[in-house]
Each structure stands twice: as C-alpha cells, then as structure tokens.
Input
Amino acid sequence: MRILVTGAGGFVGRALVSALAPDHDVIAVDRVCDGLAGADCRIWEGDFADPALLDQALADGCDAAVHLATVPGGAAEQNPALAFDVNVSASARLIDRVAAASPSPRFIFASSIAVFGDPMPTLVDDASPLCPRLVYGAHKAMIEQWIATMTRRGAIRGLSLRFPGIVARPRGVSGMKSAFMSDLFHAAIAHEPFAAPVSPGATMWLMSVSRLVANIAHALHGAPPAEPYALTLPALRTTMAELAQEVARQTGAAPSLVRYDPDPALEAGFGRQPPLETPTADAAGFRHDGSLEALVTAALRNISESDFA
Output
C-alpha cells in the first residue's frame, strides 16, 4: 500500500512509520522529520495544511492515509483559533485532498477519548454519547463527523480511532495535559523524585505506543466497520498508584520517590476515567496491552529504543 502519514515526525508517527515502512510505500509528512533520518520512506518536511506540499506528496495518489498531526489538548486550550485552523479546517481539507488522490482510499483518523468530555458517565461503552468540554475534544468530534459523512458519500473508507493515554511519550514539553503519565516513566528511569498531579486513586486508560501502532496497522488492513465509523480503542484501566508501583518495580526505583500533589481540575479531566467496555472494537480485532505488567514492559522498551532515551 502507498500510505500517507501526517505527524510522521512525532512520537506515534515515528513508531508507525518504522513499523509500516518495511512492507509499504510510506509518504511521511511533518514540519520536523529529523527523527525519520534513515527510515525507508519518502519524507516531505512541511505543513500538511500547505496545498502545494500535499500536491507534491500525493502526486502519485495513495491507497490510505493515517492522520496523526494535531494541535494537542493543552496547546489547543491556549490557542483555540490556531487549533481550529489545524485540527478542523486543515484536517477537512486533507480529507478532501486524499479523497481526490485515489478512488475511495482508507482514511484512519487519530481521535481521542477527549470526545467524551468530563465528567464522564459512570461507564463508557459503544453507546456513550460524545460530550466534549475541551476545545481539543470538540475538534476531534467535529472531524469524526466529517469522516463519517465522507464515508457515507463513498469518497473515503474512514475510521476514527479514539486513543487513550499513550505511554511513554518523550520527555519534555508536548502540549498534552496527560503528559504526567509518561513523565512518571522518565523520572523512575533516572531515579528522580516525581510529583504526580493526581491522587493515588486517580483512574486512567492507558496503552503502550507499540500496541497503538499495532492497532493502527490493523485498522489499515481490516474491514471497515459500520456506522458511526468511529471506535473507542480497548485500553487498560489502572490507578496512578498501581502504575507508579509497577513502574518502580520494573525500573528498580524507590516507590517513595513518588509523591502526590493533586490538581483538582487536571484530575477531573484525566484521573476519573470510569470502567470501559469496547465490544465493537474487541470483535473487530483491536486489543489492549493485556496486563499492566506487559504495558509497562512495552513502554520501557519503547523508551530504551528511542532517540529520546
């Protein structure tokens, strides 16, 4: 397959390109692609919102696209106008451009559990309504609807995948309000003190980046689902204390290095995730990491294999 990947130079994008490139013709697009040096793909450095860049990158068409590029949660709240331009306007134009490049291409969109808003219902399942509160979540919900519309019209074969918290992201500023979940891993590896901005009992949905990449690859090849052309991915639900304990066990860090300094607003949005049921995604072959031990092992392995280690 010839596959366009936007946000290819980012955390998930780099892992995805690495996984897809040996077997597919990958067109990697991002404003910064330094981390893709040596990858067996065609690299286009620039903004996916630039029509001229897309004209060149898609000159030979594409069989599929994976749209990862975004202005993330915290950054979107700080600059909602820019976030709308990127997350909504430019994303809608990208869908149109991909649809024009080839007959009914596969289009996989990186959505988010932020579409459910906060507070979430007592259980999230396939029938849970979208009720975003963050700008970022609202933008994701808008594009989910446009993808569904374009799929009904036969222009694309679209699927929006709602990502849970993905660990462990590179250390440093990411613009993600949920970055603390990954910061825990880096602090433990360095045996540094870590202040968790949520309480020990805060509950989160998590997935390793390697499992996410496997799910995206599965989406590229699997049969398209029925309406509404969007799936919440299976995820492991864990508490902050359980995660901290397992990370400490596997890194040899002292559990006492973790202290808890809850931010009520942040915990309301990222630390009160209820039980999750994903029967449609389960039946379609999507999977979570299997256990907290396996998730932490995978996340630590991803860090050790990364340029950011």
About this structure: The chain has two domains: 2-164+206-232, 166-204+236-273+290-305. The CA atoms of residues 163 and 223 lie 19 Å apart.
